[in-house]
Amino acid sequence: KSRHDIGSAGKSGEGLGWMFKEFFYPANIIDYVRVVLLIMAVRANTGFDFAFYYSISYLLDILDGPIARVLSQESKLGYYLDMIIDRISTCICLYYATVAVRRDGSCVSPFM
């Protein structure tokens, strides 16, 4: 069973209740914490604070998949949530790296 399989819970006639349980899977809660940490990183006043919050978010990203697999709580929500947060995280990091390089008078053309 892969992380993006819904599983058989929805097919057994339990209604939509099984879907809402996915919101509270530990791996998904870790992803929610990652979003908060990324917001804190963006709002950080120093480069050290940004690196601190971003690094914790990155470390949590390493943990969420294995936790979902160990607990047999893989879900489509978790799959997409993790993927979207990863893309946002990468964009944030690249943006701030670009700003830092351009601010320091690097060889990057000002027309980029």
User: Care to count the β-strands?
Assistant: 0
Largest sheet: none
Structural class: mainly alpha
User: How many individual helices?
Assistant: 4
The general outline is elongated
CA(first)-CA(last) distance: 45 Å
Radius of gyration, Cα only, in angstroms?
18 Å
Strand content: under 5%
Parts with pLDDT < 50 across at least 5 consecutive residues: 1-6, 8-13
Order of helices and strands: HHHH
Question: What number is the mean pLDDT?
Answer: 82
Helix content: 55-70%
Topology:
Blueprint: H1 17-21, H2 26-42, H3 47-70, H4 76-103
Helix pairs in contact: 2-3, 2-4, 3-4
Protein architecture, described:
It is a single chain. The protein is mostly helical and 112 residues long. The chain has helices at residues 17-21, 26-42, 47-70, 76-103. Helix 2 runs antiparallel to helix 3, helix 2 runs parallel beside helix 4 (76-103) and helix 3 runs antiparallel to helix 4. The longest helix is centred in the C-terminal third of the chain and has 28 residues, at 76-103. The chain starts with 16 loop residues before the first helix and ends in a 9-residue tail after the last helix. The model is unreliable at 1-6 and 8-13 (pLDDT under 50).
